[in-house]
Amino acid sequence: VRKSFLEIQKLANNNSQVKVQRNTSWKNINVSQIVPGDVIELRDGIAPCDGVVLLGGCVVNESMLTGEPMPIQKFVVENGEALLEGKVAQRHQVYAGTIVLQSSSGGNQYNQSNSLSETNISNNALLLCTGTGGLTAKGQLVRMVLYPQNVDFKFDTHLRVFYIMLGLMAFGLFL
To answer: What does the alpha-carbon distance between residue 149 and residue 100 come to, in Å, rounded to a whole number?
Structure first.
């Protein structure tokens, strides 16, 4: 069991670098230092955290979560109120651990005040981080594997009575 836990821990770790906006400037930091609320440049590869597409769009392979073999296109959130109310549609959400096949800004630019401007950091989509670590869909999946819930069938409560009745019947036939 310990060997399996160590293998899962290796799969869950991600030590790559990501470009993040902090205090109106862009910095390269380790994925483990991302916090919810950060604006992240979403590059091709593995998505570093759960988030909502702020600028551009991307094509994501979510087969590790859903089993769906076809890539899914993710679009920018048009309405900020939907984000604040927690009603973000699946077509805007990118999940940690999924594979980003293509990311593009769609020709738009972004600056630190969340408005369109003349300067652009790159040609990649931007993601608003909504969850990191164990608070992501990938974290929940790993937690379900490491700590499965006990399965309690209603059948198990009646099993004792069944065995007693079976034992009494066997004893009666023996006599």
So the answer is: 31
Q: Are 111 and 63 in contact (CB under 8 A)?
A: no
Q: Which pLDDT value is given to residue 89?
A: 64
Residue 112 token pair:
């630190």
Q: How far is CA 13 from CA 18, 28, 40, 73, in A?
A: 14, 18, 19, 26
Give the residue with greater pLDDT, 135 vs 12. 135
Q: Give the tokens for residue 16.
A: 């790559």
Separation between Cα atoms, residue 138 and residue 50, nearest integer Å: 9
Give the whole-angstrom CA distance, residue 134 versus residue 115. Answer: 31
Enter the DSSP assignment of 56. S
Kindly list the strands in the beta sheet with 57-61, ordered across the sheet, starting from the edge strand earlier in the chain: 45-46, 99-104, 57-61, 72-75
User: Global pTM?
Assistant: 0.70
pLDDT in tens, 101-127: 999 987 665 554 544 343 445 789 999
List of residues 6+ apart from 64 with CB closer than 8 A: 97, 98, 99, 138
